[in-house]
Design brief:
2 copies of one chain form a homodimer. By secondary structure, chain A is an alpha+beta fold. Chain A has 2 domains: 84 residues, Winged helix-like DNA-binding domain superfamily/Winged helix DNA-binding domain (Arc Repressor Mutant, subunit A, Orthogonal Bundle); 51 residues, Ferric-uptake regulator, C-terminal dimerisarion domain (Dna Ligase, domain 1, 2-Layer Sandwich). Chain A contains 6 helices and 5 strands; from the N terminus they run ααααββββαβα. In chain A, the strands form 2 sheets. Chain A has a 3-stranded mixed β-sheet. A two-stranded antiparallel ribbon of chain A has the order 1-2. Chain A starts with a helix and ends in a 12-residue tail after the last helix. Chains A and B meet through helix 5, strand 5 and helix 6 of A and helix 5, strand 5 and helix 6 of B. Strand 5 of chain A pairs antiparallel with strand 5 of chain B. The first copy, chain A, binds a DNA duplex (25 and 25 nucleotides) through helix 2 and helix 4.
Chain lengths: 160, 160
DNA sequence: ATTTCTGCAAACGATTTGCACAGGG
DNA sequence: CCCTGTGCAAATCGTTTGCAGAAAT
């Protein structure tokens, strides 16, 4: 299910090579950390995870590596309403998924929809552009919470 | 076309009154500034504009007023890919519009689409939620730029 | 009179950067 | 070797906050 770490490595290091950039133990650790989870994470959280794989990784390296991962398309940067941006490692497996954020419990549900995808492409072309990244964010309130006064949903649920 | 400033004032001060908050000259200036344009603006830009209307307005007051405007629904906070968030005063006139951002020239095109709107509502209900805010951001590249090597579009164009 | 608002300046916190050394090709 | 990458600590920059006085109700 998870894309093999090797394919992620190949993909990024292919990208790095094109730019004349080098392979290092620290970048390996950051990549391994980023794809060791399906959860969204902040830069700081990635720093902690990467440090567990290789304690020579510094915060600066994490902050310098993150943009490379985003530009190469391995990771997607998202603003889901929290105080910092988060990074989503699930775009390799689900390149067109979108997000619903519950305003009550802050839970995030990922969903895919082929129809929206299609409409986005049409709209973009009609305006004279070629689509690159499309993102939908829906902020909503939990019906169950409104009815029962508490939200029973479990954190790990994903609509994918 | 622009909603009368009075209606904006009424709307916000209605909201403020509900919360036991007060009407002040500084808030008036910030509101007037925010709705003196159809362009997106940053907090700092709003500060400059508000100061032109009343030079007693401080940066702190702008930063304290901005969340009130967002929570009351008058202004929408957007992450369009720049380094800071921007605020969009056009949601009063076009409550469901979305954004396309050109990766080449950074121009922003606003568009509305009833079909996407509908799909977002369906998806949200299907997942057991009631939609509150829905946003679509499309990042794209200008076809004309690709063909001609330069982007001839003018900054003020809006797809609404 | 009571409470909210304000400007100021200091504090904050996430991110970025300059530097000198380490290490990949 | 040469040049990129690194950790460290300092710098940056947008935003937030504590405070004492000003102003709204």
């Amino acid at each position: 299910m998870t894309p093999s770490r090797d394919s992620v490595h190949d993909s990024l290091y292919g990208y790095l090579a094109e730019k004349g950039l080098r392979r290092t133990a620290q970048r390996d650790a950051v990549i391994a950390a980023a794809f060791s989870t399906k959860e969204h994470f902040s830069a700081e959280e990635l720093y902690v995870m990467a440090r567990r794989m290789n304690d020579s990784v510094s915060r600066a390296t994490v902050y310098r590596t993150l943009p490379l991962l985003v530009e190469s398309g391995l990771l997607r940067e998202l603003d889901l309403g929290g105080k910092t941006k988060v990074y989503d490692p699930n775009f390799l497996e689900h390149p067109t998924h979108n997000h619903l954020v519950c305003l009550d419990c802050k839970k995030i549900i990922e969903f895919e929809d082929q129809n929206i995808e299609l409409l986005e492409n049409c709209i973009t072309r009609r305006l004279g552009f070629s689509p690159k990244n499309k993102m939908v964010k829906i902020e909503a309130r939990c019906d169950e919470l409104k009815l029962r006064g508490s939200c029973s949903r479990r954190p790990a649920e994903s609509g994918i």
